[in-house]
Amino acid sequence: MGFALALVIGVITLGTVVLFAGRFWWFPEAISEHGPSIDRQFMLTLTIIGIAFILAQATLAFFIVRYRRQGEGRASYWHDSPRLEALWTTITAVVFLSLAVLGQRVWAKLHLNAPPPGALQVEVTAQQFVWNIRYPGPDGKFGRTRTELINDVDNPVGLDFTDPAAQDDIVTVNQMAIPVNRDIHVILRSKDVIHSFWVPPLRMKQDAVPGLAINIHFKAVKTGQFEIACAELCGLTHHRMRGFLLVLSEPEFERWLQQRASP
Amino acid sequence: MGASSAPFSVSAQGKNPRILKGGKAMTQATAVHEAPKSFIRRYIFSTDHKVIGLQYLFLAMAAVAIGIVLSLYMRLRLAWPTERWPLLGKLFPNAMAGGTISPEFYLSLVTMHGTIMVFFVLTTAPLGGFGNYFLPIQVGAHDMAFPVLNMLSFWVTLAGFLVLMAAFFVSGGAPISGWTAYAPLSAVGEIAGPGLGMGQNLWILSIALFCIASLLGALNFITTTLNLRTKGMAMTRLPLTVWAWFTTAVLALLAFPVLLAGGILLLLDRVAGTSFFVPGGLIVSDKILPHKGGSPLLWQHLFWFFGHPEVYIAILPGMGITSHVLSTFARKPIFGYRAMVTAIFAIGLLGFLVWGHHMFVSGMSPYSAIAFSLLTLSIGVPSAIKTFNWLATLYKARIHFTVPMLFALGFVSIFVTGGLSGIVLGQTSLDIPMHDTYFVVAHFHLIMGVAAIFGIFAGTYYWFPKIFGRMMNDALGKLHFWLTFIGIYAIFIPMHILGIAGHPRRYAETAGFDFLTPLQPIHVFITIAALITAGAQLLFFFNFFWSIWKGKKAEMNPWRATTLEWTIPSPPPHDNFGPQTPVVHRGPYEYSVPGAAEDYLLQTAPPAPTKS
Fold this sequence. Notes:
The structure holds two protein chains of two kinds.
Chain A: H1 2-22, H2 35-66, H3 82-102, H4 104-112, E1 120-127, E2 130-135, H5 164-167, E3 170-173, E4 175-179, E5 183-190, E6 195-199, E7 204-208, E8 214-219, E9 224-230, E10 243-248, H6 250-260
Parallel strand pairs in A: 1-5, 4-10
Antiparallel strand pairs in A: 1-2, 2-3, 5-8, 6-7, 6-9, 9-10
Chain B: E1 18-21, E2 24-27, H1 39-44, H2 49-79, H3 86-89, H4 103-139, H5 147-166, H6 198-227, H7 240-271, E3 283-284, E4 287-288, H8 296-330, H9 337-351, H10 366-378, H11 380-394, H12 403-425, H13 428-434, H14 438-468, H15 474-500, H16 520-550
Antiparallel strand pairs in B: 1-2, 3-4
Helix pairs in contact in B: 2-4, 2-5, 2-16, 4-5, 4-6, 4-7, 4-8, 4-14, 5-6, 6-7, 7-8, 7-9, 8-9, 8-11, 8-12, 8-14, 9-11, 11-12, 12-14, 12-15, 14-15, 15-16
């Protein structure tokens, strides 16, 4: 029984390591400036917990075989070792807390700093099961919106056109274009329930909470088309709340924006 | 084993129950207070903690059976989303019209599976079930401190369960807002989606009832542990199971009122037009809502202030049982008893300070996220102490591979696996990609779901002979262990990979996104593993009920264990110890004591007359 259990634990451990190390399925290539730092921290963490995982399971399996009931005699009456306990408590505390501190670096850069000046502002307003995207237009200012004016057919964010700043605002549905290599400042809102803006290659996830305007910023460094998924349960077709993030070169982005500007 | 005249041994045979006191074996006299005669007072509205413990256990078994079935429906939907299952549809004629599992029904399943498992299985079985049955016996008490309160606590729990089940049958069906019921989705009524009308109201009512019941239970556990310990049962001689239940009860006492308050506010938002969690200016399904000034984040804070300690409410008793069983079958004292108790308390205390790690990307202040992150990784330290001490308990042991021991060893393995992924999720920056993906699903299922269930299985196989006076079948138990242990890993390890690939949880299918469709084969694999693993649980249920009537007769102390429950007959009499309360002379894990006649010393065994 001891051998069998040790063998099973060994096979499970090996299988797990192969599945993680083989990367048969893995995260998509990072396209944001901060993405590779998150990936590095993830790999560092995975390596450390991987070693801890292998050591713990191997020790368990080894003890199971080594100290299975056999022959005569008794177990040892050894049940305390303050020095040993102090040692492993210190080691885990140092390792875990170092990881926690290291893990704050990207976070601090993303969330403790204001969006850099000159960042392109984009407002994302989530609703069941659509992403509404708004650009401030040539004046660089978002116009006034009013809830009463919201109309899913032609005014999804409720632009108040009596405000001059609102007249050049550009609104798209499920299509979010951004220029590559430029800081983007996204203002996240929601019209109804909580949603979450999740673009895996961007390594960016942030809840959109009704009643709040949440500011995030990032910079995409690779062009292409990527999917925006909702990561917070928002109702019936949560699993189909799909938008597209188009990372374009600066001229392409300008052209894209102009095509969508109101005549 | 048998009667012996050596001072260290104890005569403890089923046929001739004796209680030991002051070195003299005393035959058991009549009960202090007589057992009730009528069937109803004895088995239904009983105030006997053992009957109540069993009632909780049977409730948890019914709940876990339903919870597993629901999870299989979910797994079928995820593996084969368009497939029709006319036969399975008969169980849910309304929700599964035409035999397909619709996305809304999938979300109902998600909600109900989570709620049933967290509340009515993981809280009910280890605490309400085993805690009720064995805490009084292990501290040497005749019953809980407040037997009537104890009875009420069970019946209110049962009412909560029935109310929850009723949600399946009301118009609109069961709620689709998940077990976390995030507002405003859960707060604005049916216009936000199916099941969010009456179904959601019943859900809140059920949880509120559960909170009240848990409070009553917690008061009982705490008072009994502090006040009803028998002579010689110092706190430092309590079995680690009692420490775990006691700490769990303290957590329950402090956490459940917060959820109760939150639930009441949520219900008021829904039915009385208040705005605790609903901000102004919302438009749901083209309708402007009249609410103003509420905060969706407030619900999350209240929910997780309860919700995180709840994780420890589920797992601490499993840790206690694992420590207890490991020591018994390693035939060694638990390593570092004081460190284990300290670790239980540290986990309990820190458990109240980390709820914010569920909310890193919620819009909460990024500064508080950093504080929550550091506190969260600190909780890894007492968890690691426990793991080290379990391993150290096995060092130079003499391991008996009984079924409860197999599950306790499995617990250690799974606790390590599930715990380590928490080191990823607890880091703010890594939580950005991992939050609300299958990585989280894998993590919490292993650490709070499966590990806790392994603790429950270890406890069941271990205490079954005491509860029913018969042994469970060993071969069936071992087969159950192998299939479950391998199956669990086959289900949950691949889920981490889904999460790394970015797969959000609570998605009814992968078809909606290009980056998800390549992951479909993993879903199929997990579903097959889940079907096999769930099938293996039938072995357990069969073994359990078959053994109640047909199992081999159990002795008083079949495992040659040391704690007080093994000094009384199997099953124990109505008032446990009779008029002769036990006197405790030593700690709970005196195995392989040098010089002792046998390799275990009951807690009641008198001290050695001379040092030899």
